[in-house]
Amino acid sequence: MRKKNKNIVLENIKLVNAGAKGVAVGKTEEGKTVLVSGAVPGDVVNARVKKSKSKYVEAEAIEILEKSPFRVEPKCIHFGVCGGCKWQNLSYEKQLDFKHDEVFNNIKRIGGLEDFETQRILGSEEQYFYRNKMEFSFSNARWLTQDEVNSGEDFGDKNALGFHIPGMWSKILDLKECFLQEEPSNSIRLAVKNYAVENGLAFFDVKNQEGFLRTLMMRQNSNGEWMVLFQLFREEKENREKLFEFLLEKFPQIKTLVYCINSKPNDSIYDQDVQTYFGDGFLMEEMDGLKFKIGPKSFFQTNYKQALELYRKTLEFADLNGDEVVYDLYTGTGTIAQYVAKNAKQVIGIESVQEAIDAAKEHAELNGLSNCTFYCGDMKDIFNDEFLANHPKADILITDPPRDGMHQKVVEQILKLSPKRVVYVSCNSATQARDLALMKHQYKLIKILPVDMFPQTHHVENIALLELLSEA
Questions:
Q1: Where are the strands (E) in 126-280, listed by range?
Q2: In the chain, N or C: fewer CB atoms in 10 Å?
Q3: How far apart are CA 351 and CA 390, in angstroms?
Q4: What pTM was computed for the model?
Q5: Average pLDDT over residues 362-372
C-alpha cells in the first residue's frame, strides 16, 4: 500500500471473484477484502481507496498490471462511461458463472439453507439487442469527457440525446451507438437528434427547466412493430407535427407514435396524459398463445425471449394438474397469473398498482380467462386473515416481489396459508434468501434456477421451489 496525492493506493491486488453489483473482489496482503470497480475478476490491479470499512475496502482500479484471461473487447465505444453494460468486458460464459455462484452463495449464506438442487443458470439466447424498451433523455449541455474539458476548446453544439451519466443526473451522454435494442432503435435516435439540431429545436435544459424536447422512449414487440413516445416540456405544435411526420415517413416500422407535454420537475409519465398522434396508441404482444396489450405506461418484461423462458420454468416448478387454486402475489399486469391459468382451476392475483390491475383484468378478458381474479392493495395490508377467510385456500402460491423482497407480514400470511408448494421468483437473491430463511421451519427448499435476464450486467433473477414439510 502506498499514498499518492494524499490518496491511499492498494498495489498488486489480485481479483479472484465477483461481488454484489458487479464489483471485482480481492484481498490485501493483510487479508482484508477489497471491492474494486473498473476491473474484472482475474485482473491484477493497483486501486485507489474510496471507502474503508472495518471488514472491507471499496476501491477503484487506476492501473491494470495483468489482464484477466476472462477479459473480452467491449463492443461499444461508450463502454466505461455509460453505466448500462458494466460487464461488456467480461466473457459471457464467465458472466453466467459469477451470476450462478452469487445466487447459490446468497441462498446458502444469507438463507442458511443446505441440501437443495441447484440447476445451471439459464443463459440468454441473445447477449445483445435483447431489450424491447429503451428510454433516452435530451439535454442542451452534453457531458464532456475530462480530455475535452482540459482542452479548453469550444465544442459548439452541446446538444445530447442519450443516457444519464451514473451518479450525475443532470449530465447526459450523447449516444453514438447502443447494443441493447435492435434496429431501427439506433437509427431512429440518431435521426431524431440530427433533425432536431438541423431545425433548431430546443433540447431540454434540466437546470433551468426549459426547452422543448425532453425524453424519447421506444418499444417494440416480437413482430417487429414499434412504438415511439416523446415527452415534450412545452407544446410547439408546428415543430412537433413536422418532427413526427418526418419520423413516420422515414421509419415505416413505427406502428404508433404517442406524446405528452410534461412540465413537471421530473420526467415520470405515470401521472401524465399521453396523446396518440398516430396508430392505436399501443402494441400487441403474444406469449405462447396469450395476448397482451402494451401501452406507453405498461410494465412488460424488457427481455421478451428470456421472460418467456422464465414463465415456462415458473409453470414447470408449479407442477399444476388443473385442479389447483393458485395465488399470484405481486402479480403486476397478471402475466404470470395468466400464463399458469390454463393449467389451474382458479388463479387469484394481488398487486398494489391500480393501473396494473386494470391491465391484468383487461388481458384476462382478452384471453378468455374466466378463472382469473385480481385484487388491488398494498400486499401487507390486503393479504390478511380476512382475505384468506373469504377466498379459497391456495394449493400453490407464486410470488414475484420487487427487489426489497416480501414484507415480514406477507411471509407470515404465507405460513398461515400453508400452500403445498411455493414458487418464489426474485430479481434479488439476497432478499429472497432472507425470506426463505423465515420459511425454512415450515418449507423445504427443493431447487433453484438462476435466470439471466440482462446480459452484460450483474443483474440476475432466480426461481426457487419450496414444498411444505409433512410435519408442518
A1: 133-139, 160-165, 168-174, 213-220, 226-232, 254-261, 275-278
A2: C
A3: 18
A4: 0.92
A5: 96
